[in-house]
Amino acid sequence: MNYYPKTIRNAIRSISKLPGIGEKTAERLALHILRAPRAEAEQLARSIVELKEKTLLCRRCFGLSDAPVCGICSNAGRSEHMLCVVEQPSDLVSVEKSGAFNGLYFVLGGTLSPMDGIGPGELRIRELASRVAEGSVREIILATSTTVQGESTSAYLAETLKRYPLKISRIASGVPIGGDLKYVDQVTLRRAMEGRRDVT
Ligand SMILES: [Zn+2]
To answer: How far is 50 from 52, CA to CA, in rounded Å?
Structure first.
């Protein structure tokens, strides 16, 4: 790497910090960017800065957004009566890609994991309860992963939300036990959504 001037060495070092990118790939990418038209390189740099500066969490669903309220939450064509609860913003995207759901979402921010010090207070459970208390939600779909933590979080939520007049269901068959929603294909996720079962 010392054969390169400092500018290229710096680029290689930054790029190699990305997950799954070794030094060889970083070197290839840095040289690619160097050879690319200036406008293309600037667009890449600008999109990275904007990614950090302009991406925020939607104040309704806590999914990723570039506005205070995201495109899904502000879409009048979606059912406000159904709320799909997921762990992370990436899970929201997975369910959305399946095309099986036309309601709204709520991102919990993780799963209960007492061993790692993550109790109910560390997740957006209070926010979820106040969202439900607003009154427009009639059905909650618990789409946390089917890992042990995902299941216990789902059970905890079902118990916590029992006092509201709600139908509460859990995504079902299709999602393998121990499965993370990110790795579940869209057809499977669509079936899991359609085959959800009541938990109350
Ligand atoms: Zn939103």
So the answer is: 5
For ligand 1, the distance from its centroid to the CA atom of residue 63, given in whole angstroms, is: 6
Q: For each of the chain's 200 residues, which pLDDT tens digit applies? A: 678 999 999 999 999 999 999 999 999 999 999 999 999 999 999 999 999 999 999 999 999 999 999 999 999 999 999 999 999 999 999 999 988 899 999 999 999 998 889 999 999 999 999 999 999 999 999 999 888 888 899 999 999 999 999 999 988 755 565 667 776 667 667 767 776 777 76
Ligand 1 centre distance from Cα of residue 126 (Å): 17
Instruction: Indicate the pTM of the whole model.
Output: 0.79
The residue among 103, 91, 108, 190 whose CA lies nearest residue 139 is: 103
Closest CA to 88 of 103, 101, 105, 71: 105
Q: How far is the CA of 143 from the centre of ligand 1 (A)?
A: 16
User: How many angstroms is it from 68 CA to the middle of ligand 1?
Assistant: 8
Cα-based angle 37, 42, 43 (whole degrees, multiple of 5): 100
73 CA to middle of ligand 1, Å? 4
Domains of the chain with bracketed CATH: 6-54 (1.10.8.420), 75-198 (3.40.1360.10)
Cα–ligand 1 centroid distance for 76 (angstroms): 12
| 19 CA from centroid of ligand 1 (Å) | 28
